[in-house]
Design a protein that fits this description.
With about 400 residues, the protein is an alpha/beta fold. It has 15 helices and 13 strands. It has a 7-stranded mixed β-sheet with strand order 2-8-7-6-5-3-4, with helices on both faces.
Length: about 400
């Protein structure tokens, strides 16, 4: 007898990165053309040696790192986030407005748990981060899709037309995944004002904020003394300190909302990873210059991407920044077919736009079939040069 499966979970698309990995199962790549994997937006290297040494010392000497800790995170890390964010954004953030989570994905799911019930809706600009859409689908919360412009920027006035009595939040990601676009401060302010006027939340995922090309605060949302009546900010330590496997994220929100987050987290993970939290704190205390160097390296790779596409006139760059380039391919073939074909024809693993937005048959504009995401943070400048050599070759001869 077949056991019942939650229909909302069954209807949710499979994890895109895992799906893409299956495309390379059993494929033999030529010795002179090894696979260049630009599919996943995560550091390919472990934490830097000083941080790994600090983590080893913590494992050996800090008994508390191995035990249950506070559900909302260790006080020292919450306080450090509050202090650093207050300085960086020119606002006032207190430690009781900060919670630590098991990665930024969990920060998002916890925020949604406090906001929406089955049958409610949230607004996601397209192209969207697929895990955001997947979680809403699993929870029976409608993802109400907001088409962005040619520059991949969402428009608050267009979003206003999608809001109804069941709308609970608008979700923005900046710098954007998958688009790479850095949202202007005035765009974020316009969405904050819209959300406040309609009594809904504004969720801003800033996972990639450490690699923003702009200097200074990317927005002034925290400068508003009443920021927590509307704003919920999400963050990831995974990208900044290469702590992907240790799962450490953060959520900034009103203390009353975090009290609800605490209920949810206590039933899911009980507490964030003790070693990961202490590693994140050590990184914040000791790796400022190292992180600045990491940002400069990402900016060099971004410049290499821009230069490379300047030489590929058949391709169009819709957005490029942080870890990503989001590009329109020149082939008269849907992007999911293009991406799978590139595995064998060019030894490239990229993600298709169909993983980040609806296809035409589902009401999409056609952008999903025409685009690819390139996670260039996983390749150095030489690797990016190899990428363009292969794209030029496949463009010239066709798929």
């Amino acid at each position: 007898m077949t056991q019942h499966i939650n229909p909302q979970l069954a209807a949710t698309l499979p994890p895109p990165v895992m799906e893409a990995r299956r495309w390379i199962d059993g494929v033999t790549f030529p010795a002179d053309r090894p696979l260049l994997n630009l599919s996943q937006a995560a550091p390919a290297d472990p934490p830097p040696p000083p941080l790994r040494q600090a983590m080893a010392d913590i494992v050996l000497t800090d008994t508390s790192a191995h035990l249950y800790g506070p559900v909302l995170g260790i006080p020292e890390l919450r306080a450090r986030v509050a202090a650093d964010w207050s300085t960086a954004y020119g606002g006032e953030i207190s430690s009781d407005q900060v919670a630590i989570t098991s990665g930024c994905n969990q920060a998002f799911t916890a925020a949604v748990a406090t906001l929406a019930a089955k049958g409610d809706n949230m607004i996601l600009p397209t192209p969207y981060y697929f895990n955001h859409k997947m979680w809403l689908d699993m929870e029976g919360v409608e993802a109400r899709l907001l088409e962005t412009g040619p520059d991949l920027l969402p428009d608050a006035e267009a979003a206003a037309a999608l809001i109804d009595a069941g709308t609970r939040a608008i979700v923005l990601v900046s710098p954007n995944n998958p688009g790479g676009v850095e949202y202007p401060a005035e765009t974020l302010s316009a969405f904050r004002d819209l959300c406040r006027s309609r009594g809904i939340a504004l969720i801003v995922d800033e996972t990639y904020r450490d690699f923003d090309a702009r200097t200074g605060a990317p927005h002034d949302l925290f400068a508003d003394p009443d920021w927590d009546d509307t704003l919920i900010q999400l963050y990831s330590f995974s990208k900044a300190y290469r702590l992907t496997g240790h799962r450490v994220g953060a959520i900034c929100a009103a203390p009353a909302r975090l009290a609800e987050v605490e209920k949810w987290l206590d039933t899911v993970t009980i507490c964030p990873n003790g070693l990961g939290q202490r590693a994140a704190l050590w990184g914040m205390e000791n790796l400022f210059d190292w992180l600045a160097g990491e940002r400069q390296e990402i900016l060099r790779r971004r410049a290499a991407m821009d230069a490379g596409f300047d030489g590929l006139s058949d391709w169009s760059v819709l957005g490029c920044g942080a870890y990503f380039a989001y590009v329109a391919h020149p082939f008269d073939t849907p992007s999911d077919v293009v991406a799978q074909t590139l595995v064998k024809s060019a030894s490239l693993l990229l993600l298709p736009g169909t993983m980040f937005g609806p296809t035409r048959d589902l009401g999409g504009s056609g952008r999903a079939e025409a685009t690819l995401r390139i996670a260039y943070a996983n390749a150095d400048v030489d690797g990016i040069a190899t990428l363009f050599d292969r794209l030029a070759e496949v463009t010239a001869k066709g798929l």
